[in-house]
Design a protein that fits this description.
Strand content: 15-25%
CATH architecture of the largest domain: 3-Layer(aba) Sandwich
Oligomer: single chain
Structural class: alpha/beta
CATH class of the largest domain: Alpha Beta
Helix content: 25-40%
Strand order of the largest sheet: 14-15-16-13-12-18-19
Length: 485
């Protein structure tokens, strides 16, 4: 029986499917953002550690130890890993809550179940997928073959410490790739749950490495010539840098980047339903979500009405201990992130906007808390209307007609998510079709599982989730069979 690991103390790194001492890493204390106290410890990988991880991935892929396994064999491992995570139960939920600072109920409903679902989804998809497709023009015959992309370097952020790694590792492994995953220093403990799960599930040695590291070591991973594909989730600024580095060697790359999503309220919208439904769409993960609805576009005649409703809704959100079932807003992930958000609140006032709410809660002396804030009097040219704040902050922007609303929504370098609110579904759908964004919700409806996730413009390249999330870890090969095949 495999001994249960200490989830809060990882003195080794996971290279090629084995826990080994770091070659050139550094000890790192992981903080609990709700208190600022030390939660646990890991070793952040160094350049030599990444080199060893890439070498193991390259060797395993070239030897076919995983890529040559049948779809059924790969699916069996992915399902066993999902079972392992599910069996962890509260231990996984509590770890993630302490490390990220999100409300525990959200970790229990989304952050832990979703990765389990992704593993099982791609297990089923790979079993059902047709990897070889015959094609003919009537005379000549070819075989179109879908093959694994090779060695994948996956770089993930802290706001989805288990779900985002799973969205890369699950389809990449399903496709037959070998993977080097680099999670961030803020949430490495949760990411290591994937190492435990896949090792226990019987993933062959060499196929997976998980090496938490800082940005500089992550850049070293991107530069590695033996890495065939980079899959990155994070800021648009970092995405630009990664894309430039991949361009130097024409490495395959997919990017899931930032957002400044607009919620368009049409003049016939149910305001009570909107105010109630927008809260989770704007404040998930304490506002630290790329898909958060952070710009609310409202008819000028309803500006005051909507502003009052949102201000009241935000003020009523309990801010506090993530383990309190009543808490809706927990701490931001770090003091640096809190300073960033507070800096934007100061900037909003300097730009002429009014900040309703915000500030640090009086009843919480420790932890990296910021109260939800509504920005009113916002002009679309302001930086707070254009830049991703990544905290519990929403900007209210008036418009005069639908055409202007669509123009304001599209007046952004981003195009990740959005929503349209109206009593008339067909009218809302017509507006949704005009928004240049990868995902749109009508009246707060959730997306169906298995639909693509990703954005237009500087919100990224490529799509995750659904069949599209498997396709990005594939290469296509055409084999001419001859006229009489």
């Amino acid at each position: 029986m495999t001994p249960t690991p200490d989830l809060y103390s990882r003195s080794k790194i996971f290279v090629g499917g084995r826990w080994v001492p770091s070659v050139d890493g550094t000890e790192h204390k992981v903080e609990n953002p709700a208190s600022g106290e030390v939660l646990g410890s890991v070793v952040l990988a160094g350049v030599a550690d990444v080199d060893a991880a890439v070498a193991a991935a390259r060797a395993s892929f070239d030897a076919g130890v995983w890529a040559d396994r049948s779809p059924t064999e790969r699916a069996t491992v992915l399902r066993a890993a999902a079972d392992y995570l599910e069996d962890l139960g509260d231990a996984a939920v509590d770890l993630l809550t302490r490390e990220l600072g999100c409300p525990r109920w959200f970790a229990q409903r989304a952050h832990v179940p979703n990765p389990i679902r992704h593993l099982r989804y791609y297990a089923g998809l790979i079993e059902a997928e047709q990897t070889d497709e015959p094609r003919t023009d009537g005379t000549n015959h070819s075989l179109v073959v879908r093959e694994p992309a090779g060695v994948v370097g996956a770089i993930t952020p802290w706001n989805g410490p288990l779900s985002t790694p799973a969205l890369k590792v699950a389809p990449a492994l399903a496709a037959g790739c070998s993977v080097v995953l680099k999670p961030p220093p803020e949430t490495p403990l949760t990411a290591y749950l994937l190492a435990d799960a896949l090792a226990a599930a019987g993933l062959p040695e060499g196929v997976l490495s998980i090496v938490p590291a800082d940005r500089e070591v992550g850049e070293h991973l991107v530069r590695q010539r033996d890495v065939d594909k980079i899959a990155f989730t994070g800021s648009t600024a970092a995405g630009r840098r990664i894309m430039a580095l991949c361009a130097e060697r024409i490495a395959r790359v997919t990017l899931e980047l930032g957002g400044k999503s607009a919620a368009i309220i049409l003049d016939d919208a149910d305001l009570e339903h909107f105010a109630r439904s927008l809260v989770p769409m704007a404040m998930m993960v304490n506002g630290q979500a790329c898909i958060a609805q952070t710009r609310v576009l409202v008819p000028r005649a309803r500006h005051t009405e909507v502003g009052d409703a949102l201000a009241a809704a935000f003020a009523a959100l309990p801010v506090g201990d993530p383990f309190d079932p009543q808490t809706q807003i927990g701490p931001l992930v770090s003091e640096r992130q809190r300073q960033r958000v507070e800096g934007y609140l100061s900037l909003a006032e300097q730009e002429g906007a009014r900040v309703v709410g915000g500030g640090r809660p009086d009843h919480l002396g420790d932890g990296y808390y910021v109260c939800p804030a509504l920005l009113t009097g916002v002009d679309t040219a302001m930086r707070v209307a254009q830049e991703e704040i990544f905290g519990p902050v929403v900007a209210l922007i008036p418009y005069d007609d639908e055409t202007e609303a669509v123009r304001i929504a599209n007046n952004s370098i981003y195009g990740l998510s959005g929503s349209v609110w109206s009593a008339d579904r067909d009218r809302a759908l017509a507006v949704a079709r005009r928004i240049r964004t990868g995902m749109v919700s009508l009246n707060g409806a959730p997306q169906a599982f298995g639909t693509p996730f990703g954005g237009y413009k500087q919100s990224g390249i490529g799509r995750e989730m659904g069949p599209e999330g498997l396709t990005i870890y594939r290469e296509l090969k055409s084999i001419a069979l001859g006229a009489n095949a």
